[in-house]
């Protein structure tokens, strides 16, 4: 499977997003999340794809099954490379989402978010969720994969154990912080690109370490080289 760096386009509008993309001399794997999508709507995805870039549409659907299915149907025509939902939306929501993609013969990868990488164990306690964070990620991951997900969004810290316990899946890991940047921002379960590669991540998601770098293109190249160097 091709491994890649997915660049999070967490911008407040299309002008900023296009200005950023213009810095790249090649097609890249992008992630369009709630901030940009809710501001610009589906046309932002169409335009980024028209420019040759891949798109992970990171809207994290989390609702009753019928509403999740409607959301999946609504984004089908965008033909994105990845789309996702929150696994606590439940088995029925996930099974139906996968069926909709399969029936449409879509090649979109369906991912489920386990536990956000900004969370640690005490955040689970605040939500009255018992058990260790690793166990919660594993049980959500198992439920999601059994229900038909192609892959999981989790921390790179969990990938090795998850693949050992649940078998192979597409592991997409945000919370990536290059050496020296751990503990920055709101991310709690972080790893460097090299650690993520060694742990078995298939795709790393990187936002601020690239976006806020003095030279985003250089930062992207360095992160990609570090991630792919570890490939076996
Ligand atoms: O568990 C999750 C799920 C999604 N994300 C998203 O990834 C990027 C990370 O951005 P950074 O600036 O590199 O922290 C962001 O768009 C999140 O919405 C995540 O971080 N964790």
From TrEMBL:
<dbReference type="GO" id="GO:0044205">
    <property type="term" value="P:'de novo' UMP biosynthetic process"/>
</dbReference>
<dbReference type="Pfam" id="PF00215">
    <property type="entry name" value="OMPdecase"/>
</dbReference>
<feature type="binding site">
    <location>
        <position position="10"/>
    </location>
    <ligand>
        <name>substrate</name>
    </ligand>
</feature>
<keyword id="KW-0456">Lyase</keyword>
<dbReference type="GO" id="GO:0006207">
    <property type="term" value="P:'de novo' pyrimidine nucleobase biosynthetic process"/>
</dbReference>
<comment type="subunit">
    <text>Homodimer.</text>
</comment>
<comment type="function">
    <text>Catalyzes the decarboxylation of orotidine 5'-monophosphate (OMP) to uridine 5'-monophosphate (UMP).</text>
</comment>
<feature type="active site" description="For OMPdecase activity">
    <location>
        <position position="60"/>
    </location>
</feature>
<feature type="active site" description="For OMPdecase activity">
    <location>
        <position position="63"/>
    </location>
</feature>
<feature type="binding site">
    <location>
        <position position="117"/>
    </location>
    <ligand>
        <name>substrate</name>
    </ligand>
</feature>
<feature type="domain" description="Orotidine 5'-phosphate decarboxylase">
    <location>
        <begin position="4"/>
        <end position="223"/>
    </location>
</feature>
<feature type="active site" description="For OMPdecase activity">
    <location>
        <position position="58"/>
    </location>
</feature>
<dbReference type="InterPro" id="IPR047596">
    <property type="entry name" value="OMPdecase_bac"/>
</dbReference>
<feature type="binding site">
    <location>
        <position position="187"/>
    </location>
    <ligand>
        <name>substrate</name>
    </ligand>
</feature>
<keyword id="KW-0210">Decarboxylase</keyword>
<feature type="binding site">
    <location>
        <position position="177"/>
    </location>
    <ligand>
        <name>substrate</name>
    </ligand>
</feature>
<feature type="binding site">
    <location>
        <position position="207"/>
    </location>
    <ligand>
        <name>substrate</name>
    </ligand>
</feature>
<feature type="active site" description="Proton donor">
    <location>
        <position position="60"/>
    </location>
</feature>
<dbReference type="InterPro" id="IPR013785">
    <property type="entry name" value="Aldolase_TIM"/>
</dbReference>
<dbReference type="InterPro" id="IPR014732">
    <property type="entry name" value="OMPdecase"/>
</dbReference>
<feature type="binding site">
    <location>
        <position position="208"/>
    </location>
    <ligand>
        <name>substrate</name>
    </ligand>
</feature>
<feature type="binding site">
    <location>
        <begin position="58"/>
        <end position="67"/>
    </location>
    <ligand>
        <name>substrate</name>
    </ligand>
</feature>
<feature type="binding site">
    <location>
        <position position="31"/>
    </location>
    <ligand>
        <name>substrate</name>
    </ligand>
</feature>
<dbReference type="GO" id="GO:0004590">
    <property type="term" value="F:orotidine-5'-phosphate decarboxylase activity"/>
</dbReference>
<protein>
    <recommendedName>
        <fullName>Orotidine 5'-phosphate decarboxylase</fullName>
        <ecNumber>4.1.1.23</ecNumber>
    </recommendedName>
</protein>
<keyword id="KW-0665">Pyrimidine biosynthesis</keyword>
<comment type="pathway">
    <text>Pyrimidine metabolism; UMP biosynthesis via de novo pathway; UMP from orotate: step 2/2.</text>
</comment>
<dbReference type="GO" id="GO:0005829">
    <property type="term" value="C:cytosol"/>
</dbReference>
<dbReference type="InterPro" id="IPR018089">
    <property type="entry name" value="OMPdecase_AS"/>
</dbReference>
<dbReference type="InterPro" id="IPR011060">
    <property type="entry name" value="RibuloseP-bd_barrel"/>
</dbReference>
<dbReference type="InterPro" id="IPR001754">
    <property type="entry name" value="OMPdeCOase_dom"/>
</dbReference>
<comment type="similarity">
    <text>Belongs to the OMP decarboxylase family. Type 1 subfamily.</text>
</comment>
């Amino acid at each position: 499977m091709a491994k890649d760096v997915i660049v999070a386009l967490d911008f407040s509008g299309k002008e900023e997003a296009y200005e950023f993309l213009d810095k790249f001399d090649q097609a890249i794997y992008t992630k369009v999340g709630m901030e940009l999508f809710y501001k610009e709507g589906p046309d932002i995805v169409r335009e980024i794809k028209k420019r040759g870039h891949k798109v992970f549409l990171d809207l994290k659907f989390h609702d009753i099954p019928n509403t999740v299915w409607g959301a999946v149907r609504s984004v089908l025509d965008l033909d994105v490379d990845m789309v996702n939902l929150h696994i606590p939306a439940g088995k029925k929501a996930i099974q139906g989402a996968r069926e909709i993609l399969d029936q449409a013969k879509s090649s979109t990868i369906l991912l489920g978010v386990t536990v956000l990488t900004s969370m640690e164990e005490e955040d689970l306690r605040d939500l009255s969720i018992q058990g260790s964070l690793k166990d919660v990620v594993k049980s959500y991951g198992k439920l999601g994969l059994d229900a038909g997900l192609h892959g999981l969004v989790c921390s790179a810290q969990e990938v090795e154990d998850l693949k050992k316990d649940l078998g192979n899946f597409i592991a997409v890991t945000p919370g990536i912080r290059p050496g020296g940047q751990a503990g920055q921002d709101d991310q709690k379960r972080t790893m460097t690109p090299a650690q993520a590669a060694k742990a078995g991540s298939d795709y790393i998601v990187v936002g601020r370490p690239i976006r806020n770098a003095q030279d985003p293109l250089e930062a992207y190249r360095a992160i990609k080289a570090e991630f792919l160097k570890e490939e076996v």
